[in-house]
Here is the input.
Amino acid sequence: MSTDAPPNVSIEDLVLDGRVRIEDMVDREGLDELCKSFVTLFGIPVRIYSSDGALLADAAHEQELCAYLGGMPDGRKACAAIVGGVRAQDAGESGDVSRPCFTGATYRVMALEYDGRRVGRLIVGPFVPGSLSEPPPTLLSVDKMIDPEKAKALLAKMPRAKAETITRIAGHLKSALDLILFSGHKAHVTSKMHLASVRESYRQLEEKTARLQEAFDRLKELDKLKSNFLATVSHELRTPLTSIIGYSEMLSEGLAGELRSEQREFVKTIHDKGEQLLSLIMGLLDLSKLESGTMRMQVRGLRIEPVLDEVVSTLTPTARKKGVNLQLDVGAGLCELKGDPERLRQVFLNLVENAIKFTPSAGFVTLGARMVEDAGDGDDDEGLSLLAPTRAMLEVRVSDTGIGIPGREKLKVFDAFYQVDGSSTREYGGTGLGLSIVKRLVEAHSGSIRIEDNAPRGTVFVVSIPQPTPTVAETPRVA
Amino acid sequence: MQINFGGREIAVKLVYYGPALSGKTTNLRALHQLTTDQSRGRLMTLETKDDRTLFFDMLPLTLRAESPTGSSPGMSLRIKIFTVPGQVLHASTRRLVLQGADGVAFIADSQVSETEHNAASFLDLRRNLTELSMNVKSLPVVIQFNKRDLPRVRTDEELASLATRGKEPVFKASAVNGQGVLETFFGLLHMTWTKLDTEHHLAQMLGIESKDLVPMAARQLGLKTDVATLLSACVGGNLDRHRQVTS
Here is the structure.
């Protein structure tokens, strides 16, 4: 896969060949404090230099002898030469070099190592070796202004230590420093590793998201193609069907000569099945239009009563034929709605037709309408004082005493092509398109549809459509 | 592997891979204890509070290669041994640690109940190597069956028969007691060295005889045991596979 590029972060630099630098791992002030405490403890000056020669910590105070010599021209020169030489002194192959001073004191230059590599130098001194008692001639002759007695007195004030003691205490400082370096290095590696790890996880997530997005886009494209296909096919099916229905109608009306009763019966079957097929195709066409958002609604102000009247009068013959009692129960004070009367008629025609279909003989189907206040969703009533005026709903209930819908099926019945009884030998026919179209049409009117149980048996389909909010122009003005 | 001519260093990376709790860190701890101070650095462990490896553990070994004739200046061979975090959730870290590995020791758990975890982890190793564009076939790999001290483990006979089927050398270990740890490490070092030396003529660069490196490493790490004895603990596989394949 092209997206599976190797990780772009590497820990090699950190732990394999990465050079650890004291200045990166150790807090400079902390290092200074460590050296100062060392000086306090042993009284011997120390300085720490990085591998590039930069001074990292300096816990050396000027010795009185050095200050005295600094006050003389030749003494100052000689001091500067020694200090410069010590600063440039390499720790040598062994990692421990002594550098004597003309005063008789000594400096020790030691290598600081970490992970088998040199990372800097530790300079200990000046200190006077334990064996020295008299000022050497090199000190007394360094400047003609020097007072031998004073030089001797000041030399005696310098820190004094044996070489082995220095080795031991410097070893102690080195191991303390090594521990600090290790801790710093470890923390450094941990944080780098953390970052690298997060970046790597992020890269994987990004890849996954890209793949999902790709799949999602492809599905959306396929869905659009499916809707288009459905619309085209439905349209193409409808055209020849119109001819079948038209010609069979003309035949049954005797336009092509009088038919015998058996022939008329056959032609009527052709006509009826043609109509049935047409309504199925119209349903598919509606669904594809609703899915693709191309359904055109003729929205205008309307009253629901005539719509419901018409539904009842259309379906009364069907109900009567099946022995089902169809009743209309419209309350007073219904509001005007904004909607497409033809589409609303389709909604209630479908619901009532369904109710009749699933209600046995001598059962009841009631189509009722009333105004309700939307009670909101229980406790979730924040801002009700603002929203309440818009919450008046027109509720149309289609109740039957039919076979009912099991609880778990109540949401699924609105899916396209879904049948509660999906078997091929089912008792009740239908394509499973009706309710999905109904739901979408109701939603296109900003309404909702739900299913309730009709005690003791049967089902109630409840369609709620909000009362339109009066626009500014429609708000009655108070004079 | 990295060669730094200026710094006269060769850096080799070995990775201990395997399922969670198979004993990778324990191997490294044991190796740390069984070797001497001069050549090995501090064991760096990046672990969580419950002792599980978070990112990795790393043990650095630094060996000095001095030519016996003194004809060339010494070079150092820096070996870094890493463990990966075994837990499934650390997949990205595992891949990061595996990057640039010169050899892999696969630490398997000998318990029969862990068979599937061993297999899943080995597949994970192969997948990660492929994803890192590393050559799975030519990478030196040794397998260690750890936790031999526990009950309900695969028997020696089973391991012997498994070992003859695979091409990787197999070592048995009880890392918690320090057993088999050196054998596994030197087996891997031998294989890795053989491959790297064949490809890059490292012995020449270090100024030593090719066959002397691993014994030299053992000496510097303070081992009393002879390397040949350690390597003879290997069951099945072919420790010299890379010499034969590439030469």
